[in-house]
Amino acid sequence: MKRLKGLSEQDRERYVSIWTALNDHVDEKTKRLLAAAMSLSLGYGGGKVIREITKMNPDTIKLGIEQLSGKAPIDDNRIRVKGGGRKPITEIYPNIEFEIVKLVEASTQGDPESPLLWTSKSLEHIKSALYAKGISVSLPVISDLLARNEYSMQANRRRFEGLTDETRNSQFEYINKVVSAALKQHNPVISVDGKKKENVGNYANKGSEYNQKGNPIEVNAYDFPDKINGKVTPYGIYDIYSNGGWVNVGCDHDTAEFAVYSIRQWWIKLGKDQYTSAKELIITADGGGSNSSVSRLWKIELQKLSNEIEILLQYAISLPGQANGTR
C-alpha cells in the first residue's frame, strides 16, 4: 500500500461531501466500513485524514479495515461486535439510583410509607443536580429509575388554606391509620367525590385528535346547556385496594341521596363480589358538595345504606375536626 504524500483540498472536500451525505442515513456498522474503505483508498497515513473528517475513534476505523481485509469477521446479524456498545448506566454509576432517590426525597409530598410517592422536582432539575455531582445521565433513564422506586410526576394540588385547626395533622394521621388497618383486614376502602357537571350534546372538548386535514369535527358554537338534554353529574368512586374506579352518571342535581345511591350501586355491581367477607366499608371524602361534613342528609343516607347491606360504614372527611363514623 502506497503512503499518502499529500491530499489536495479538492480531494478532501470530496471525502467530506461523501461522508456528510451518508452519515445520517446508515447504521454504525456501515459508517465503520465506509470510513475504513476511505482510509484504505488513501493509503498509509489516510487514517488520520479520515479520523479528522469522520470524528471516529481510531480503533473503530482499525476494526473496519480488519473486517474489510478479512482479518476480522463481519456478522451480518449484528451492527456492533458482541460485547460492544455503551455499558448500562448502573454499571457506569453504581450509586446513581441512590443519588436520584436522595435528591427527590427532600421534596417528597405525603407519607413515605404510602403506596404512592410523588415529587415536585422536574426531570430537568434532577438531571442538572446529578450533573453537578459528576453524573451525566439522560432524562428517560432518570424517569425509569424513579418509576422503579414508585415515584411519578404530578401537578400541584390546591390544598393549603392558610391558618388551619391545630389538630388538622392528627386528623390526617387518624384517616391514614383507619385506612391502613382496613386494607390489612381486606375490608374495602373507597374514595368518593362528585365530578364537574357536563353538558349533554354536541359540545367542544379541549385537546385535539387526528382527523382528515381541513375537515375538523364541527360542534356547537356556544356552550349554553341544552334545555332538553340538560347536564349530567358524574360521581366517582375509587377502590384503593383493587385500584379500580366506578363512575355513576346522574341527570339530576348532585345531592347527598345521589352520592349514597352511587355508593350503593358500586357495592351492588362490584363491591359485594370482591369483598365477600367484608365487615366494614371505609369511605373517604372531601368536606363539600353532596358529601359535605355538615350535611345531615348525607349521614342519614349513609345510615340507611349501612342498615341495608348490614355492614359497618365509617367515613372520614378531610376537614379539621371532621373525622366521623356511622353505623
Mind explaining what this structure looks like?
By secondary structure, this protein is an alpha/beta fold. Helices cover 41% and strands 16% of the residues. The chain has eleven helices and ten strands. The chain has helices at residues 9-23, 28-42, 46-54, 58-69, 89-92, 96-105, 123-132, 139-148, 168-184, 256-274, 296-309, and strands at 108-109, 117-119, 151-153, 189-194, 198-199, 231-239, 244-250, 280-285, 312-319, 322-326. The strands form two sheets. Strands 4, 5, 6, 7, 8, 9 and 10 form a seven-stranded mixed beta sheet that branches. It starts with 8 loop residues before the first helix and ends with a strand.
- Report the sheet-strand fraction: 15-25%
Span between termini: 96 Å
Counting helices, strands and paired strands, the structural category is alpha/beta
Taking all Cα atoms into account, the compactness measure Rg is 33 Å
Query: Any idea of the CATH class of the largest domain?
Result: Alpha Beta
Largest sheet: 7 strands, mixed
Give the SSE order as H and E letters: HHHHHHEEHHEHEEEEHEHEE
Named at the architecture level, the CATH assignment of the largest domain is 2-Layer Sandwich
The number of distinct β-strands equals 10
Which stretches are low in confidence, meaning pLDDT under 50 for 5 or more residues running? 111-116, 319-327
Shape field: elongated
Mean pLDDT comes to: 78
Q: Layout of helices and strands, plus pairs?
A:
Elements: H1 9-23, H2 28-42, H3 46-54, H4 58-69, H5 89-92, H6 96-105, E1 108-109, E2 117-119, H7 123-132, H8 139-148, E3 151-153, H9 168-184, E4 189-194, E5 198-199, E6 231-239, E7 244-250, H10 256-274, E8 280-285, H11 296-309, E9 312-319, E10 322-326
Parallel strand pairs: 2-3, 4-8, 8-9
Antiparallel strand pairs: 1-2, 4-6, 5-6, 6-7, 9-10
